[in-house]
Every structure is written in C-alpha cells, then in structure tokens.
Design goal:
By secondary structure, the protein is of the alpha+beta class. 15% of the residues lie in helices and 24% in strands. The chain is built from four helices and eight strands; from the N terminus they run ββααβαβββββα. It has helices at 27-31, 51-59, 77-80, 134-137; strands at residues 6-9, 13-17, 66-70, 86-89, 95-98, 101-104, 110-113, 116-119. A hairpin with a 3-residue loop joins strand 1 and strand 2. The protein is globular and about 40 Å long. Mean pLDDT is 86; it is low at 74-82.
Length: 142
C-alpha cells in the first residue's frame, strides 16, 4: 500500500492528506471552502477556519484521504472514536465506514483502516474493496 502523505498544521491540529486515496468527491471543498482550495498551492489552508470546523470536515471525508491528529496529544480521530463504527450508504456511491476497522483480504492479508473508509458498492472499482470513484463513470444508482 502506498503511504505517501502530506501534513498541514495550524499548531493545534495536523491534517494528513493521502492523495492516492482521494476519490475527488468534493465534500471537503463544498463543506469548508475557506480551508480546502484545490486550485491553490498548498490546497489546504489551515488558517481558514477553526480547529473544530476543520476536524468535523475532515471526519466527513468519504475515502479516508483526509485524517487528522491533535498536535499536543498525537492521537488520531480514529483512536478517539474507536468504540463506535458507523456505516453510511451514500446515494449512488460507496459504503462509508467511519471508525477503526480491519479489512481481511482474500489473499489472507489484513490492514487496519482508520477514520473514514469508502468501500465499493457498484463493483466497478479497480481498487476493490475500496471505492475509486468508478461509480460515477458507470452511472451507478443505488
């Protein structure tokens, strides 16, 4: 698995972006445009909103491409919320699983996914079991 990531901090919280996980749903941009500005460099402007607003928006990321940790605690949001697992069926899109989960692959390997994970529901993803946004290309309805 590719572990390339970039970190952006405001001193209180650090947002971690893993670009190869991003499915470009635009939820971050539509939800907090003062922080997430994809046409700028760097595209994450940590001074654009309060720490609390940034954390709430990062938690809404359907792919898990965005995560965070508190700088003074170095604890991720998945560790703080590990007791609760939430599964949301996104209209015409993937299953969004929030919380820490273990994915058991058919080859016997496993991996831990933290925060938000988008699982393919349409069957067209080239990154199964994860969503890669292919549902948009096949006009998946469900």
């Amino acid at each position: 698995m590719d572990n390339f990531s970039k970190e952006h901090s405001n001193g209180e919280v650090t947002v971690v972006w893993k670009p190869r996980l991003c499915i470009h749903s635009g939820i971050c941009v539509r939800g907090l445009a003062m922080v997430f500005q994809p046409h700028e460099k760097p595209w994450i402007k940590m001074d654009g909103a309060s720490t609390e607003s940034i954390i709430e928006q990062v938690k809404a990321c359907p792919s898990g491409a965005l995560s965070f940790f508190m700088n003074h605690e170095n604890v991720s949001d998945a560790q703080m919320d590990a007791k609760t697992i939430e599964v949301q069926v996104l209209k015409n899109g993937p299953y969004l699983v929030r919380g820490e989960i273990i994915i058991q692959h058919s080859d016997g390997s496993s991996e831990v996914k933290e925060s938000s994970t988008a699982l393919c529901r349409c069957g067209a993803s080239l990154k199964k079991p994860y969503c890669d946004g292919a549902h948009r290309n096949i006009n998946f309805e469900g």
